[in-house]
Amino acid sequence: MTTTTQDTEVTPSARTEGPSLLQRLSVRPEIGAALGALLVFVFFSIVTDRFLSPLGIATWLDDASTLGIMAVAVALLMIGGEFDLSAGVMTASTALVTALLAVHAGWNVWFALLASLVFALTVGAFNGWVVMRTGLPSFIVTLGTFLALQGLNLGVTRVVTGTVQVSGVRAAEGYESAGWVFAATLNIGDARIQASVVWWIVLTAIASIILVRTRFGNWIFAVGGSLPSARAVGVPANRTKILLFMGTAFAGWVAGSCNILRFASVQANQGVGLELHYIIAAVVGSCLLTGGFGSAIGAAIGALIFGMARQGIVFARWDSDWFMLFLGVLLLAAVLVNNRFQKRAERVRR
Predict the structure, then answer these.
(1) What SS3 state is found at 57?
(2) How far is CA 47 from CA 205, 219, 223, 309, in A?
(3) What is the C-alpha to C-alpha distance for residues 94 and 256, in angstroms, rounded to an integer?
(4) 308, 60 in Cβ contact below 8 A?
(5) Taking the model in full, what pTM does it have?
């Protein structure tokens, strides 16, 4: 009996053929958020003419910007496997430190900003240190920080001013130059783009580069994916997580500085409750609650969806209560989509 074997020729092009465009897109964490943003954009563009007007675009970009600044930093922290519930109140705390020093202590605004930055980084480092030192969940540690800062904001503001508000920053020395950095407006046609939008874009770009192009970015994914495994291969886990907490505190300082120098006043209870919005924006942007997966660009897109939806509802003259329904549906949908994209990304990479 004779057996014949037919060899199959493998061409060089077949051997070197890589994944398709669809496969490459499917491993990008932010693709789900981008599709969601496109859907929201098209929907409100059809529903209301004001949405695509220069004023409308400037309005929803402004709405998304301070949320986006925080969401990007929170996203990096979540990829690293942690949460920061003090992120919202931090925006008020830093603004209050700046305002109290500039208005009531007579400091130059720039020195007041520097002092509030040191305050923010100290609190962030403390949060990270306690989490890593004690092993307590960051949810509990930062909840304690949230309550402490909220009480400190209200107590100190009442003692110094007799009210729960600080105003008058515009009269302080150094306001003009500091205001140009944190609260200037850029006129593009009929649209007035706020400085916070520029900060949002710049910080998103920096965070994205750090996350995907640097060793520190690899450390973030490593400690979020498996802390024991990361330590076993030499990743400086304590330093990485402390720096991530300091990153959210820095973002809180930027957002707080933009607010105080733009509006020239701050309420002691400002920012309370926004920490959940930051987390939702990060989750919508592809971050998993379990850590180890996500994207800074995705978090920025998640904030953009917030801004477009919130202002689109206003432009359409709907009851603003519908926005909370939108948030709930959006969060559930994002969790389901993110899990699907993560599993698909794992299959493609194999």
Answers:
(1) helix
(2) 32, 44, 44, 12
(3) 6
(4) yes
(5) 0.89
Alpha-carbon torsion 228, 230, 233, 238, what sign? Answer: negative
Contact 138, 263 (CB under 8 A): no
- Which DSSP symbol is given to 165? E
Neighbouring-strand partners of residue 192: 187
Amino acid letter for position 61: L
pLDDT tens digits, 154-172: 999 999 999 999 999 999 9
DSSP state letter for 9: P
DSSP state string for 265-301: EEETTTTTTHHHHHHHHHHHTT--TTSS---HHHHHH
Alpha-carbon distance 167 to 110, whole Å? 17
Residues 6+ apart with CB under 8 A from 101: 107, 111, 112, 115, 116
Burial class (CB in 10 A: 0-12, 13-18, 19+), 138: buried
The pLDDT tens digits of the residues spanning 60-104 come to: 999 999 999 999 999 999 999 999 999 999 999 999 999 999 999
DSSP 172-203: STTHHHHHHHHH-EEEETTEEEEHHHHHHHHH
